[in-house]
Specification:
Elements: H1 3-23, H2 26-31, H3 34-37, E1 59-63, E2 66-69, E3 74-77, H4 92-104, H5 115-126, E4 130-134, H6 137-152, E5 156-160, E6 173-176, E7 179-182, E8 197-200, H7 205-212, E9 217-222, H8 238-249, E10 252-256, H9 267-271, E11 278-281, E12 292-296, H10 298-310, H11 327-340, H12 343-366, E13 372-376, E14 379-383, H13 392-398, H14 401-413, E15 416-417, E16 424-426, H15 433-450
Parallel strand pairs: 3-15, 5-8, 5-9, 9-10, 10-11
Antiparallel strand pairs: 1-2, 2-3, 4-12, 6-7, 11-12, 13-14, 14-16
Helix pairs in contact: 1-14, 4-11, 5-11, 6-10, 7-8, 12-15, 14-15
Bound molecules: 4'-deoxy-4'-aminopyridoxal-5'-phosphate.
Length: 455
């Protein structure tokens, strides 16, 4: 079916499905009131309005992969808080840790008795020898960038077009007509971010060599698979080239595993033997509690020791926040690393992701659509393109907000919550084989409706 016809059909579907959504949710509708709620836009975080629903789904309860909304509708969650709940809502060991942590003190600005165990677990699981904690992945990226600049004495940063690494100003840029400029929607930024950040297309080895040639880039910050602009896999050999060229240029390699931790135990880095200088993870690492971790090599750690010794006084390094490294975070990290983020959990996630990938591909072929399914472990993304996209320009060309919204709303009305701003399915260990099958059936039904084979 032609893209224009598909989009016209998607618009009609959105209207009909929005009506169904409204009819089932009088309480959720009534709860969305800026004046009465006291919240700007009527929600505690303005992104909550960016879903394709007429008003936000208000969640009364979330457990495992099931959400129950304020109107009592039950939904299977494959958004999982955009990865924050990748291991399911409220994994039992994390709930137990939360309970115990509450009794033992939540935050003291001192190491708790869990600290040494957690440090060892991070080294064992992710390979790098020295770690620190933050509260969010955005924080961890900011801290790691700061360290990269401090130890290299260089100001510039390189990112890939279409990236998202959190609320980190230096990375909120776009590549427009060959020029790096501040991202259009970024609020209150008064600096020209293109002065110190270079953005190049992913998988472009020539552009990478060019950008690194002046030996003035402190670090390259990259997701191993780009997950925030469709899902863009690395071309064969790209990571080898990236590592080789960064080493040659004296540039550090900072890998952001926040989403690609879906790959398997130890993230994409461990599974594919990458050799980053710095690594960042957040979101699901504490089972849903706000905590992030960032690790560094021994060489960076040694340099940082020297720099810190040369500084007079203490504090205000720009690294860390008051609640980072808290007893609460350490207790939840320990529970997650010891009992939740396990080989068994990943094996279950992969098995259901295999089923969903095969089922989605069959549904797409059955509907005669030229779409692909991109995947990194337990994370799958439907891309509206016949071939896997190679960079953000191709991903943007393939995307359609209208078709995406129609998919999301229709799937939600059939009881499945996809990730907004994506066509993303995240498979938690709490998802059953039956629920995976139900998801595939719902997807197939929605495609049939989209191509008008079914009403
Ligand atoms: N890194 C990546 C790759 C992300 O996708 C995100 C958020 N989507 C972040 C970092 C930032 O995470 P947070 O919003 O939890 O700080």
């Amino acid at each position: 079916m032609e893209r224009a016809n598909l989009e016209a059909r998607a618009r009609a579907l959105i209207e009909a499905e929005a009506e169904v959504f409204r009819a089932r949710r009088p309480r959720c509708a009534a709860a969305h009131d800026e004046e009465a709620s006291g919240f700007f836009d009527g929600v505690p975080q303005h992104w909550m309005l960016d879903w394709p629903t007429p008003f936000p789904l208000v969640v009364d309860q979330a457990s495992g992969v099931e959400l129950v909304d304020l109107d009592g509708n039950r939904i299977v969650d494959v958004c999982l808080g955009d990865t924050g709940a990748m291991f399911g809502h409220g994994p039992a060991p994390v709930l137990e840790a939360l309970k115990n942590a509450g009794m033992r003190g939540l935050t003291t600005m001192l190491p708790s008795s869990d600290a040494q165990v957690v440090g060892r677990l991070l080294v064992e699981c992710f390979g790098l020898p020295r770690w620190q904690l933050g509260a969010t992945a955005s924080d961890a990226n900011r801290f790691a960038i700061r360290v990269a600049r401090a130890v290299t004495g260089r100001a510039k940063l390189l990112v890939f077009d279409g990236c998202y690494h959190g609320a980190v100003d230096d990375t909120l840029v776009d590549l427009v007509d060959g020029k790096t400029i501040s991202r259009r929607n970024l609020l209150g930024q008064v600096r020209d971010l293109g002065e110190l950040t270079v953005s190049i297309p992913f998988n472009d080895e020539a552009a990478l060599a060019d950008a690194l040639a002046a030996n003035d880039i402190a670090c390259v910050l990259a997701e191993p698979v780009m997950t925030n602009c469709g899902m863009i896999p690395p071309a064969p050999g790209f990571h080898d080239t990236l590592r080789h060229l960064t080493r040659e240029a004296g540039t550090l390699l900072l890998i952001d595993e926040t989403h690609t931790i879906s790959t398997g135990l130890g993230g994409y880095t461990k599974v594919h033997s990458l050799e980053p200088d710095l690594i960042v993870m957040g979101k699901p690492i504490g089972g849903g509690v706000p905590v992030s971790v960032w690790g560094m090599t021994q060489a960076i750690s040694d340099k940082l020791h020297v720099i810190r010794r040369e500084q007079s006084g203490h504090g205000h390094s720009g690294i860390g926040t008051t609640l980072s490294g808290s007893a609460l975070q350490l207790a939840c990290l320990r529970a997650c690393l010891e009992h939740v983020m396990t080989e068994e959990a990943y094996a279950k996630m992969q098995a259901n992701a295999d089923r969903i990938e095969a089922g989605f591909k069959a549904a797409i072929a059955g509907a005669g659509l030229d779409w692909t399914v991109s995947r990194v472990g337990a994370r799958l993304e439907v891309v509206f393109s016949a071939l896997p996209v190679k960079n953000a320009a191709e991903a943007r060309a393939a995307a359609s907000d209208t078709i995406e919204a129609a998919l999301h709303l229709s799937m939600l009305n059939l009881g499945y919550l996809l990730t907004p701003f994506h066509n993303m399915v995240l498979v938690s260990p709490a998802l059953s084989e039956k629920q995976a099958g139900g998801l595939v059936n719902a997807f197939s039904t929605v495609l049939e409706r989209l191509i008008e084979r079914r009403a």
